[in-house]
Amino acid sequence: MSEAFEIVAFGISAFIAIAGALGMATTMSMFRSGIFLMSSFIGVAGLFILLTADLIGLLQIMMYIGGFLVMILFMVMVMHDPGGAMMAGMDMAFVERWFSKGLVPREPPHSGHSDMHADHGQEQRAHDRQSHAMPQSNAGDHRGHSVHHDEHADDDDQSMQDMDDSGHEGHAAHHGNDKSGMDMGGMDMSMVTPVRPAAAWLAGAIGVVLVSMLLLRPTWRVVNAMPDPDSARRIGQLLMEKYMIAFEGAGFLILIGIFGAVLLARPTIYPDDASRRARVAVDKKPEPIAAEGLVPLAVPDKQAGQHEPHQSEEHGA
Amino acid sequence: MIVPLTAYLIVGAILFAIGVYTVIAQRAAVMILMGIEVLLNAIGLNIIAFWRFTAPTDYSAQIFAILIITIGAIEMAIGLALVMLLYRQRQTVEVDAYAELKR
Description:
Chain A is mainly alpha-helical.
């Protein structure tokens, strides 16, 4: 391996790793953070391979890329705003702005409630922007906006489900956010906590301290031996001989982890509060029907007298 | 080995700092899991770099890295299961809504 190639490969891999992690930490779009994190993993895998730990590099790519595809899937399913289009107009630091470049703010940040049209198509989004440009729906004029919205819903397939909703409360219910009692207008839509500047300072301090300690420390005693190029075979032998207990323990840990994950995430009979209430209402035993006896007919003639014992039998039954 | 050990360690330190920032500053539980993954990555990078430069004939470090990757995978599985469970109950994944144990 020539030296120039090694330096260039290290530079590229380190840049990908650090820039990916930085982008993951700072972008406003969660989908983008997943992709950035994948690129960071690939950069770290490149560093592993550069350090002649080929097996670890390949394991890194195989485990984490697959795992983070699943995680991105989870984000798109679960997150409130995986695309980050709501946060794009917020005030951001320089790095955040750079990594969030190209996110189209769906709404200007002053119109609080209309942030809720998260699941409409592109067409609808363009329409929202149009209607904001119109003078009739100014900031805070939600009524005009929603009326406009319902007019538009005729030709949009995705907003068919919104037609029965009346205005923004319906949208909130559609997103399921009203269950936790959160008012979407007043809620802080940001992906990051308010302690973000403090966290940034703390992380910067940690980084500076670590790097300066590394730089000030005298260098480690470096052995100039070359590891076995077929290191995977050596690792396999070590795993099966010296570290067999650790290997088995890791396998057992995976087994227990799978059990735990299945146990935690299994579909319960009560998926949420509403269906729990419904289920409890169904499960409740029906109240016994109050036995109200038939009023005996006071009939004077004889025929009725013949039937009388029969009737009392029915009463008993 | 023209690239010194310190360069790899500095990359690991920067990754660690970014991971700490993510864990503290992010609000969604999934993003906090991502920050933990970055932290684990920094640790693995440090271990492999030390292995390569100080003890390249002893492969125990790579086994340690494999164990770290295993732990990371399990942590992600359990974390996602917890997030799904909490999401079913609270209809949100933001950790601010999970503060009930504090009271």
